[in-house]
Amino acid sequence: MKKQTWIVTGANRGIGLEFVRRLVERGEDVIATARDPRRADELRATGARVQALDIADPASVAAFAKAVADERVDVLVNNAGQGVNSDSLGSIDFEIVRRLFEVNAMGTLRVTEALLPALRNGERKLIVNVTSRMGSIDDNTSGGAYAYRASKAALNMINKCLANDLGREGFTSIVVHPGWVRTDMGGGGAPLSVETSVEGLLQVVDHLDARANGRFFAFDGEEIPW
Ligand code: NAP
Questions:
Q1: pLDDT digits over 23-59, tens only?
Q2: pLDDT tens string 197-220
Q3: Residue nearest to atom 20 of ligand 1 (CA)
Q4: Dihedral, CA of residue 107, residue 109, residue 112 and residue 117, to nearest 10
Q5: Which residues contact 207 (CB under 8 A, 6 or more apart)?
Q6: In principle, which of 51, 141, 142, 177 could form an S-S bond with 218, CB 3.0–4.6 Å?
């Protein structure tokens, strides 16, 4: 496969770091972002080009977009995200609700909009938004986790809008669920390793065609209901 330029956000640990490792290993040109690159030793060790980006900070997003404006970016992986699972009805912390919307929904949209010039320069024109099955309304049978679920449901809607708005330019924009993965967010009791999750996600992403635009896939290729 021809070498492509990928951007992966939130790449200093967890799923993002594994994405970058795999992509660099197979010879892709990878721009990997971290909120604080000075504290991203494992990421720098991959050989990816490391840039600073806080997706919830408009000035940081603008500076990053400027730095990559002349690149031909083929694939944007909007992986950066935050999650907490502790907000149940009666004890909702609205600061956390606000923060998760700012990061997971608004931050992802802000980054995507800011990177459009670089993505329009690219050939693949693929946007991969890392959401969660917990953002599926159909699949919600247990309630709770208001902030995380709602912020990821908002991201799912943002993806559908991007698919409609950019599809006519040849873009494909999808949301993916990585599974429940052993990371700082997923915790030690999660069933999946980052290796298994990212291997599956790359299989999904590598085999997409235009019919995938706007759809919601799990790491194992299953299509998730909205
Ligand atoms: P993680 O280990 O907690 O890593 C999250 C990454 O996002 C870190 O690099 C973190 O950077 C970055 N990040 C957080 N806020 C950011 C911001 N404002 N700007 C830029 N980067 C930011 O989580 P993970 O498990 O790898 O999760 C990756 C993605 O998968 C997330 O979108 C998450 O919602 C989704 N997901 C995970 C699971 C799971 O079971 N793990 C399940 C479903 C979906 P810092 O180190 O600076 O905080």
A1: 999 999 999 999 999 999 999 999 999 999 999 999 9
A2: 999 999 999 999 989 999 999 999
A3: 54
A4: -110
A5: none
A6: 177
Is the shortest distance between the CB of 188 and ligand 1 below 6 Å?
no
Report d(CA 121, CA 225) in Å as an integer.
32
Are 77 and 128 in contact by the 8 Å Cβ rule? The answer is yes
C-alpha span between 156 and 138 (Å, rounded): 13
Answer yes or no: is the C-beta of 135 below 6 A from any ligand 1 atom.
no
Task: Find, among 164, 165, 167, 108, the residue nearest to 135 by Cα.
Answer: 108
pTM check: above 0.85: yes
Q: 176: which strand partners?
A: 130, 217
Torsion sign across C-alpha atoms 225, 146, 85, 9: positive
**Start-to-end Cα distance in the chain:** 32
Distance CA 189, CA 49 (A): 32
Comparing C-alpha atoms, which of 121, 116, 156, 163 is closest to residue 136?
156
